[in-house]
Specification:
There is one protein chain. By secondary structure, the protein is mostly beta strands. The chain has a domain of 191 residues. The protein is 8% helix and 56% strand. Strand 5 and strand 6 form a beta hairpin. It starts with a helix and ends with a strand.
């Protein structure tokens, strides 16, 4: 029995050695790749990007063309391989990362490295922007769209200077989510272990969900409703002052709460429960629920 095991291991080792030898003899030198493609935007109103390991940036530009640029490095023997494909169907532009066929996954040099696709779109209001990655980061930069869906597994997500006139749905598993200087009518933002940071945002309704990640918010005083729910993550919120007709509602199983806004009159204020108001008939509501996470609220 032991002889069979030894023989099997020997065969596996020889096979792996042979595979490595092939790669070494054919060269593992890497080559930079820059691929560019552009076309008239025409009636395009929807942008859809699906990638696995590629980082993705969608940004606006002063042009009537849509431009897709891919940069990174690959094996020299693979530099002619197509890394992505673009398809236009009616009003939708779809950009998809193409997987390398017959890849040997356990070899570290087998895949393309540091690939980044940048999609530059004309400045106009789009109906929908959808971006999905597995391990790649996502950037949405000064884009204007009615709706947006952004999903990443382990990559980070960054939104800067965007205008979303209807709704945003943004999800990440272990990646961080960061947004700054955006105008978003309605948003649902979820993460598992990543941190959510949303600064200088304007809009109407926001919902945040996190498991072990923290939630850090800096909101204008015009936002009507903010709901935050975490398990063990802490929640920190800043609001522009003066704030009028405002309600704060915090409940936690074991997390502590603290409000640093002198104008708030408290109906309830204990270690794990806070309910307070500024003025009557509130039109701006902050609702926070945590299991063990702490809560901090202050004006600025």
């Amino acid at each position: 029995m032991k002889k069979w095991i030894v023989s099997l291991l020997a065969i596996l080792i020889v096979g792996m050695a042979g595979t490595i030898t092939i790669y070494l003899t054919t060269g593992i030198s890497r080559a930079s790749v820059i691929a560019e493609e552009s076309f008239q935007a025409g009636e395009i109103t929807r942008i859809q990007v699906a990638a696995t390991s590629m980082n993705v940036t969608v940004k606006s530009q002063s042009s009537d063309q849509i431009e897709a640029t891919v940069k990174g490095d690959v094996l020299e023997k693979d530099q002619e391989e197509q890394l992505y494909q673009i398809e236009q169907t009616d009003d939708t532009l779809m950009i998809t990362q193409k997987e390398k066929e017959n890849r040997v996954g356990f070899l570290p040099w087998d895949t393309a490295k540091n690939l980044h696709v940048t999609v530059s779109v004309p400045e106009k209001l789009y109906d929908n922007v959808s971006i999905e990655t597995t391990s790649g980061d996502i950037v949405l930069d000064h884009a204007e769209t009615a709706n947006a869906q952004i999903t990443s597994t382990s990559g980070d997500v960054d939104l800067t200077g965007d205008k979303i006139t209807d709704s945003l749905v943004m999800e990440a598993t272990s990646g961080d989510i960061q947004a700054e200087n955006n105008t978003i009518e309605s948003a649902t933002i979820r993460t598992t272990s990543g941190t959510i940071k949303n600064k200088q945002v304007e809009g109407s309704q926001f919902e945040y969900e996190a498991t072990s990640g923290d939630v850090v918010l800096s909101h204008s005083g015009e936002i009507a409703e903010v709901n935050v729910e975490t398990t063990s993550g802490d929640v920190s919120v800043e609001y522009d002052l003066p704030q009028e007709r405002f309600e704060v509602d915090f409940q936690s199983s074991s997390g502590d709460g603290r409000v640093s806004m002198e104008e708030v009159l408290f109906e309830e204020k204990s270690e794990h429960n806070i309910h307070g108001f500024i003025g009557e008939n509130p039109i701006h509501v902050l609702k926070v629920r945590t299991s063990s996470g702490d809560f901090r609220l202050k004006g600025r």
